[in-house]
Amino acid sequence: MKRLAILVSGRGSNFEAIARAIREGRLDARISLVLSNRADAKALETAASFGLPHHCLPSQGVATDEWARQAVDLLTPLDIDLICLAGFMRRVGQPLLDAFAGRILNIHPSLLPAFPGLDVQQQALDYGVKFSGCTVHFVDAGLDTGPIVAQASVPVLDSDTAQTLAARILVEEHRIYYQAIALVLSGRYRIEGRRVRPA
Q1: Each residue of 150-197: pLDDT tens digit?
Q2: 111 and 187 share a domain?
Q3: Can you list the pairs that 185-191 forms with residues at least 24 positions away whose Cβ atoms lie under 8 Å?
Q4: How far apart are the C-alpha atoms of 164 and 150, rounded to whole Å?
Q5: Alpha-carbon distance 129 to 110, whole Å?
Q6: Which candidate in 54, 108, 137, 174 is catalytic?
Q7: Is 55 a catalytic residue?
Q8: Which of 121, 146, 149, 180 could cross-link to 140 by cystine, CB 3.0-4.6 Å?
Q9: Which pLDDT value is given to residue 14?
Q10: What domain range is 49 assigned to?
């Protein structure tokens, strides 16, 4: 069975959605480690409640690449097939990118390449877009720039706040992330330039 590592920084709702998809038989994988860079991440409590291995590797005051080296040391013995970022609020350092090249996914709450980075829903509202959504993409050295695996869109309503828009996008995140993970774990895809195509 394919092994996942989930990297989190906060509440971990996408992690929980992945764990439920596995528990309910919608995703054929197992979570070998939930790794947080913050000791106060609610996702660690959730992992404990699911009976999943979890660990905190604090990142405060630690350089990005040094934290990544420590993470590689933790993950390598576990024979991880795929790393899934689920609300992981740090850049992925080069040692992780090198050790798990082509095996790191992220979900981002916009239709990339629009609105990378932080405060995404407010960016969408300020820009006046009519649709926003979410994107699952491979992680590379750029900021939310890797090849796109899956996307889902939601309408932006005139009455929306950043919070209401985020809540509707989150529903779609929970739906498409585990499906994208399943595709990548199956190996039935190929990357041509920036395009991820069925193999």
Answers
A1: 999 999 999 999 999 999 999 999 999 999 999 999 999 999 989 999
A2: yes
A3: 185/2, 185/28, 185/29, 185/81, 185/82, 189/149, 191/102, 191/138, 191/147
A4: 22
A5: 11
A6: 108
A7: no
A8: 146
A9: 98
A10: 1-101
